[in-house]
Design goal:
alpha+beta, 6-stranded antiparallel sheet, 28% strand, globular
Length: 247
């Protein structure tokens, strides 16, 4: 609601919601969100960063050609607690039929993961890149090969360390605020992968100048601590807070 009060953020939100609606045959904001209750989580998992040059090349040919490469680099996982399981199941079944009319056949599976039965929706192909599921009062949407089942097992198996790590991080205080969406950037991990990006663009060839430049950037990142970003909707707009953990 707060984003809608800001013209720029409202236009951005329209694009995002429109893209999700196209992919799932659901109006996420109008039809899906009312069936959830907090909290919701969204995570981005960095995979094969060496795919970045290929992604940029594919992007010239259009979004569809680059999506597959992008999902080899980044995996996305979204989870939410469900307050109307019957309504959500009916909605997901309806979207399955609508996607079939558009030429995307969706298979529905019941699988036992971590001792619990999960209802899984995914494109009917050998290795689906996306999928969504309902299990134990949760809705899970994932993008990236294998990410859906991994996330379900992680969620049900109580293997997650997010709450503990977040509480101890620079984002801990930010996350304690009601209604806040928090992102924590682990600069140490970004620095550790910087050379992978360089090698990918240079195709393994080492150049002194480029190596020096990367080392300088890496050293700069290593002087920074984790960076926390909080976005919270308020009556008159959006409030953004940024905090850095001093080294």
């Amino acid at each position: 609601r707060a984003a809608r009060n800001n013209r720029a953020l409202g236009l951005m939100l329209d694009k995002i919601v429109g893209r999700i609606s196209e992919m799932t045959a659901l109006h996420f904001e109008k039809d899906v969100l009312p069936l959830f209750r907090g909290p919701m989580t969204a995570s981005l998992h960095l995979k094969d960063i060496a795919q970045l040059p290929k992604l940029l090349e594919r992007s010239k040919a259009g979004l569809r050609d680059s999506v597959g490469v992008m999902l080899n680099m980044f995996h996305i996982a979204i989870t939410a607690e469900v307050q109307d399981a019957v309504g959500l199941k009916k909605l997901l079944s309806g979207s399955k039929d609508e996607l079939a009319k558009r030429g995307t056949k969706i298979r529905v599976l019941k699988e036992v993961i971590a001792g619990k039965e999960a209802l899984i929706f995914e494109p009917d192909r050998k290795t689906p890149n996306v999928g969504w599921a309902m299990v134990e009062g949760h809705y899970i949407y994932c993008a990236g090969p294998g990410r859906l089942r991994q996330t379900i097992e992680h969620l049900l198996g109580a293997q997650g360390t997010l709450q503990k790590e977040l509480g101890e991080s620079v984002g801990g205080g930010l996350a304690a605020e009601a209604g806040a969406s928090v992102i924590v950037l682990r600069t140490e991990q970004v620095a550790a992968r910087a050379m992978d990006i360089v090698q990918a663009f240079s195709k393994g060839k080492k150049t002194l100048g480029l190596s020096v430049a990367v080392n300088q950037v890496t050293n700069l990142l290593n002087t920074l601590g984790d960076i926390g970003l909080s976005v919270r909707g308020e009556k008159d707009g959006i409030r953004v807070l940024v905090r850095e953990q001093l080294q």
